[in-house]
Fold this protein.
Amino acid sequence: MFYVYVIEGLKNSNVYVGYTKDLIKRLKEHNQGLNFSTKPYKSWKCIYYEACLNENDAKRREKYFKTTQGNRLLKRRLKEYFYSKSKNLN
């Protein structure tokens, strides 16, 4: 299986999209600062993932989520999560 995942920074709520074959290992790498893109914002938690049988399907889905249209889809997909989170801050 290949996983497309969305992680959120615990300190600043930054969102990062990626794909991997080992989701748990990859999340640990992000939290240990082993990824150049996410190192400055570490501590992360996984807020969404999808599983694919084919690596190319996972890559295509990751690329889509990084587009404006894909980002909008993710925000709609996680609408209740983001709403409840903002509600708890107020």
In short: The CA atoms of residues 9 and 74 lie 16 Å apart. The two ends are 39 Å apart (CA to CA).
